[in-house]
Amino acid sequence: NAGVTQTPKFQVLKTGQSMTLQCAQDMNHNSMYWYRQDPGMGLRLIYYSASEGTTDKGEVPNGYNVSRLNKREFSLRLESAAPSQTSVYFCASSAVNEVAGYTFGSGTRLTVV
Amino acid sequence: LAKTTQPISMDSYEGQEVNITCSHNNIATNDYITWYQQFPSQGPRFIIQGYKTKVTNEVASLFIPADRKSSTLSLPRVSLSDTAVYYCLVGPYNQGGKLIFGQGTELSVKP
């Protein structure tokens, strides 16, 4: 089925470890996004990529890096994980920057101990 | 994007109509009103968007008064499966690059 695929679905890291969250979409969308969601809170934008080759910071970029590998893939990297980065991470994509056109993945639940 | 205010939570019973109001006093002329729905353990999904008056689709209706300073998402005859968080977003149609989701309204439907 067409959509946004995130891997892994679950991950436990120790403080200081690094990891990369993967996201791929097969809808030929230009724009891709990374959000985090903490308990009882809405989604906060970490980084986004309006088109292949460009990336921009969102609300909460500190502690993260991103790579728009190609049109399909947008990865999020934690270089040195901290307990404050325990969260559920969602990747999304859209054809252009249309507000109505976001498709989200099913999320990656990350715990940093 | 315009700031929005919506209730943090609402309770309802199966079969009732649910109305969730969103306030957006500083909405701009070119802003649209968009609602997303998020089920537990899933990412949000788009449900409806409007600019003025009334919009209806197979999932919900969206009512927007003439001054556009608020909007109401209406869910007819809810079921348990409508239990979700509903987000109201206000902004230009094609400037979703920094789409900001607030806390949303957590709707709990009880039997």
Give your account of this protein's structure.
The complex is a heterodimer of chains A (113) and B (111). With 113 residues, chain A is mostly beta strands. Chain A contains no helices and eleven strands. Chain B has 111 residues and is mainly β. Chain B has strands at 9-13, 18-23, 31-38, 45-50, 53-56, 61-64, 70-75, 84-92, 105-110. In chain B, the strands form two sheets. Chain B has a five-stranded mixed sheet with strand order 1-9-8-3-4, with no helix packed on it. In chain B, strands 2-7-6-5 form a four-stranded antiparallel sheet, with no helix packed on it. The A-B interface holds A 4, 31, 33, 35, 40-45, 48, 50, 56, 58-59, 90, 92, 94, 96-107 and B 32, 34, 36, 41-46, 49, 87, 89, 91-104.
Task: Pick out its properties.
heterodimer, A: 113 residues, seven-stranded mixed β-sheet, 0% helix, B: 111 residues, mainly beta, five-stranded mixed β-sheet, four-stranded antiparallel β-sheet, 49% strand
